[in-house]
Specification:
Structural class of chain B: mainly alpha
Largest sheet of chain B: 2 strands, antiparallel
Strand order of the largest sheet of chain A: 1-2
Helix content of chain A: over 70%
Oligomer: heterodimer
Shape of chain B: globular
Radius of gyration of chain A: 22 Å
Distance between the termini of chain B: 33 Å
Number of domains of chain B: 1
Distance between the termini of chain A: 44 Å
Largest sheet of chain A: 2 strands, antiparallel
Order of helices and strands of chain B: HHEEHHHHHHHHHHHHHHHHHH
Number of strands of chain B: 2
Chain lengths: ~500, ~475
């Protein structure tokens, strides 16, 4: 089933590619229809997922025996939300791309290839395979930004490509080193995650391998100070590109830190907690402060991503149950809310051809539905209780308090700043009287646009009100990561850092 | 009666087929002046016959090694060796030749009466290099090298109406002869030190005896590395490459560059990894240094080129560095895989260059590629895939090739070289995607659609190989793993 999930978008892309270029009107609807199929499969996967079973639906086929590389896929509670999110956002992103009128076919093809790569990266349990997907994703995204982006699209695309390629080059060296070490210790080369987790690495080797992986993922997240490619890429990318970039591509970084750094290098992960926490909190506060002063709505959302992803990294390196749960669910939440915010920015840009906050004003009188959705997503992003952002940020904060109290308090400041930059932006764009003539003639959202936003809004409410729907699937997997760290190191997670600690108290009552 | 050496015709059958093909073309052309198409068929038949005999040799080599009868692979009193390594390298040469001639077909036809010369020279060059990869004797190796190289010098100057072509030919000839002289002097010194020309004899000599005054041998090895390094355009022996790549006939550059690289590296592997494997402490640092220098010089100088041919020349320098990581890693099969992969991509890439450069072959500035994706989408897509393949992106054969040599270098303890190599690979990606930017993201302006012609076949093969080997590498890797030198 997992292989099918990766191949379905590829097949879809090939089908679209076979439609003649002159049948322009066919490409986009066909692409959307074809991307709904993987979504259905992903939904089914979510439905049948057994939380307690660890990696499941595992598929393993030898790729090239002497090198020890395998087509090795599996899904657990950490990757499941990301797979579903990817499958959900691709049709939505395509649906939001009706304004792309030149070279539509290529656009749809690249987007579907991108989907295959992203899903593959989340499902890969073989590091070679992971690297293949991780790197292959760059190409379609590069084309999406570079061909359909804004004015400085080429600069943004090349910067995006080279930054990430540089990060992954170091990771490739580290992957080679891991496999070589496995050969030295066990007598056969393996790139499988579960094999490499048993490696006995010298502290020095573990240190630099951790660093190589961490830099690759920190660039992807992006963590301060590796973030400079992100605003450029976001601002120049077309709406669909921004949505997928923010919602899914960046998550490869946070996912990678959680999946690979914590599991492969537990010892160094524990040692690196202070550094990662500092970078995370600097990212949270820096992203938020810079977001406040952005004159461009899209750039504001981009910097808010830097801030929000800092929370995820903080939760990851809190090394507590709450922190990891929060990190995983925030991966999903940020994808939903920021994806929606980029959609909204794209919708207003399509109408007004500007993203400058100063060009707007009083829009809620002209476009009440649009304003409503924007306010809703703003609240979700700020972390209003009852919506999904609250669940994630709350978990991260209480999760990081036992191990990193100072950082938790500082990070809480980021929540306040988020309220400032988003609500202030809302105020400037939507409240007051529409004093500019161009703004007073704007049309409100169409049924199509509402249809794109509604599923995201529904999920935001569902997760906000009943997070167990997702958390139950996540928790056993995040607990397994922590168990592995406690087994491999002397590190003892302070109470009440583990869920077990909390449950005992609850039972006693 | 003086005993005549036993002549094993089958050992040289591929080379003979190529040389006879060349002779036939010249004779037939003088006598009947047939259309170029007929001569093309002669080339095709010669290549097919050579390939057929090579395949036969492949199985013979496999049987002989399985039977433990290594002696039967050595022919002509130790001059020629037909092990799997030689056969694999020769098949790569033949494929590159077939693709290269197809890519340059328009140029050949455009030469009119001189087309026959071009085809004969191509076959002669391939025959020379084919002997070179199957040499077990340094003098034999030198002969093969010279036969091949001299044919290439002439080919470089075939586009006479362009002054750059003359420049390329003269430069290539002067520097190339100098490199050959350096090489042959190195061979002389090696002979002085070991009293052997034969590669296998040198190996057993060095294995059996402790050389008391090794300095002569060391200098000899150094000169041989320099001479062969020139042929594969490794830094610091690369300065000829950009001018030759730019000036030589567009249609044939891909062929010239790829066969020189395949043969040169096959020779490097045989000399260093077979003859001097016991002295590796001496040459490993040198080769690692050349490798590092080539990667850096190639990648960074390619970044600043405004001409796609010069860019590909410098990228070829970088690739020489990447391939040398395989030599450093002692990985004969890694080098072979890289050579096969790169040769096909290079011929494909130059097929695109030839098409875009136009009939006179002069238009190779990067601006000529502006908006190519709008004008000729298939051509642009092929070029993009080939460039990404050369850049070593996953799911292309380039990644498989790079991964193979890098892991071997890592396992041999050259971690620093691998780290340098992956970083250089990213720099290399930068200039490959620069071309893609121009093709895909710039406006074509009023430039016209270009017509592809027979080069389309080359592109189809090269792109298919790049993608299929990238996703299903098993067949190629297994084949190379069987192609061990004796």
């Amino acid at each position: 089933m997992l292989t099918a999930l990766i191949l379905l978008p590829v097949v879809g892309a090939l089908v679209v590619a076979l439609v003649p270029s002159r049948r322009r009107e066919v490409h986009l609807p066909l692409g959307i229809a074809l991307s709904v199929i993987p979504l259905a499969v992903a939904g089914y996967l979510f439905w049948v997922f057994e939380p307690a079973a660890g990696f499941q639906h595992v598929e393993r086929a030898v790729w090239y025996e002497p090198w020890g590389i395998n087509w090795y896929l599996g899904v657990d509670g950490i990757s499941l939300p990301m797979v579903v999110l990817t499958a959900l956002l691709v049709p939505i992103a395509l649906g939001a791309s009706t304004t792309i009128t030149n070279r539509t076919k290529e656009f749809v093809v690249y987007t579907l290839f991108l989907e295959a790569g992203m899903i593959g990266a989340f499902l890969a349990l073989d590091l070679f395979l992971f690297f293949v997907f991780f790197e292959a994703i760059l190409v379609p995204m590069y084309f999406i930004i570079g061909i359909w982006g804004g004015e400085r699209r080429i600069y943004a695309a090349v910067k995006f490509f080279l930054y990430t390629a540089f990060g992954s080059a170091l990771m490739l060296a580290a992957i080679i080193a891991l496999a070589y070490n496995h050969n030295a210790q066990f007598g056969f080369t393996s790139f499988a995650l579960n094999d490499l987790m048993n490696l006995d690495l010298s502290p020095g080797a573990e240190g630099w391998l951790f660093t190589a992986f961490a830099i690759a993922f920190a660039i992807k997240v992006p963590l301060f100070p590796f973030h400079t490619w992100l605003p450029d890429a976001h601002v120049e990318a077309p709406t669909a590109g921004s949505v997928l970039l923010a919602a899914v591509l960046l998550k490869l970084g946070t996912y990678g830190l959680l999946r690979f750094n914590l599991s492969l290098f537990p010892e160094t992960s524990v040692d690196a907690v202070p550094i990662m926490a500092v970078l995370a909190v600097v990212g949270i506060l820096y992203g938020a402060v810079v977001a406040i002063v952005q004159p461009d709505l899209k750039k504001l959302v981009a910097y808010s991503s830097v801030s929000h992803l800092g929370f995820i990294v903080l939760g990851t390196f809190a090394l507590t149950s709450g922190g990891l749960q929060g990190a995983v669910i925030q991966n999903l939440n940020h994808g939903l809310t920021t994806g929606a915010l980029f959609l909204l920015v794209g919708m207003i840009y399509d109408r007004r051809h500007t993203k400058k906050i100063a060009d707007f004003g009083g829009l809620q009188k002209v476009m009440p539905v649009f304003a409503g959705f924007f306010l809703f997503m703003t609240f979700a992003s700020i972390g209003l209780p009852g919506l999904n952002g609250f669940v994630g940020e709350f978990l991260v904060l209480i999760g990081s308090y036992p191990t990193l109290p100072t950082f938790a308090i500082l990070a809480a400041g980021g929540v306040v700043l988020a309220a400032i930059y988003l609500l202030w932006a809302y105020e400037r764009v939507f409240t007051g009287v529409p004093d500019k003539e161009e703004n007073s003639i704007l049309t409100d959202l169409s049924a199509r646009e509402i249809g794109l936003l509604a599923p995201l809004a529904a999920l935001i409410v569902v997760i906000g009100l009943y997070p167990a729907v997702v958390l139950d699937k996540i928790t056993p997997s995040t607990e397994a990561v922590l168990d592995h760290i406690e087994e491999q190191t002397d590190f003892v997670i302070p109470e009440p850092g583990r869920i077990a600690d909390v449950v005992v108290v609850g039972d006693a009552e | 009666m003086i005993p005549t050496p036993e002549i094993s015709w089958i050992a040289v059958a591929p080379d003979l087929a190529l040389a006879l093909g060349a002779a036939l073309i010249l004779l037939v052309d003088v006598q009947w002046k047939p259309p170029a198409r007929v001569l093309g068929w002669v080339v095709g038949v010669a290549l097919a016959v050579a390939a057929g005999f090579s395949v036969l040799q492949w199985f013979q080599a496999g049987d002989a090694i399985a039977a433990g009868d290594n002696e039967s692979l050595i022919a002509f009193s130790g001059l020629i060796i037909v092990d799997g390594f030689a056969v694999f390298a020769r098949l790569a040469l033949l494929v590159a030749t077939a693709l290269g001639v197809t890519a340059g077909w328009r140029f050949v036809v455009g030469l009119g009466r001189r087309g026959a010369e071009a085809l004969a020279l191509v076959l002669l060059a391939t025959a020379g290099f084919s002997l070179m990869v199957a040499s077990n004797n340094l003098i034999m190796l030198f002969l093969g090298l010279e036969v091949g190289s001299i044919a290439l010098y002439v080919l470089a100057g075939l586009a006479r109406e362009r002054p750059e072509s003359d420049e390329a030919a003269i430069k290539y000839f002067l520097l190339g002869s100098f490199a050959s002289a350096v090489f042959v002097y190195g061979v002389a010194l090696i002979y002085a030190g070991t009293r052997h020309f034969e590669i296998l004899e040198i190996r057993s000599y060095l294995g059996d005896f402790i050389v008391t005054s090794p300095a002569v041998i060391y200098v000899g090895i150094g000169l041989v590395i320099a001479g062969l390094g020139f042929k594969v355009s490794a830094a610091p022996f690369h300065s000829w490459a950009p001018d030759v790549y730019q000036g030589a006939p567009a249609g044939l550059v891909g062929y010239m560059a790829s066969v020189a690289k395949v043969a040169g590296f096959a020779a490097i592997v045989r000399v260093l990894l077979t003859a001097f494997e016991d002295l590796d402490a001496t040459w490993l640092p040198v080769v690692a240094g050349i490798s590092a220098l080539s990667m850096l010089v190639g990648a960074f100088l390619a970044l600043v080129q405004g001409d796609v041919r010069r860019m590909l020349a410098y990228s070829g320098v970088a690739h020489a560095g990447f391939i040398m990581t395989g030599v450093v890693g002692g990985s004969t099969d890694g080098v072979l895989v890289y050579l096969a992969v790169y040769a096909v991509q290079l011929v494909g890439a130059f097929a695109v260059v030839a098409v875009v450069s136009g009939p006179d072959g002069g238009r190779s500035g990067i601006d000529e590629y502006r908006g190519l994706a709008r004008r000729s989408p298939l051509l642009a897509a092929s070029f993009a895939i080939l460039l990404l393949g050369m850049g070593g992106l996953p799911l292309t054969s380039g990644f498989i090739a790079k991964f193979g040599v890098f892991t071997q270098a890592w396992a041999s303890g050259f971690e620093w070289l691998v780290i340098l190599a992956v970083v250089a690979s990213v720099v290399a990606l930068a200039f490959y995607i620069r071309v893609i930017v121009v093709m895909y993201m710039d406006d074509p302006g009023d430039a016209a659609e270009v017509s592809v012609g027979p080069a389309g076949w080359v592109l189809a093969v090269a792109v298919a190989a790049t993608i299929l080997w990238g996703i299903f590498p098993t067949s190629l890797l297994d084949l190379a793993a069987d192609a061990l030198p004796l």
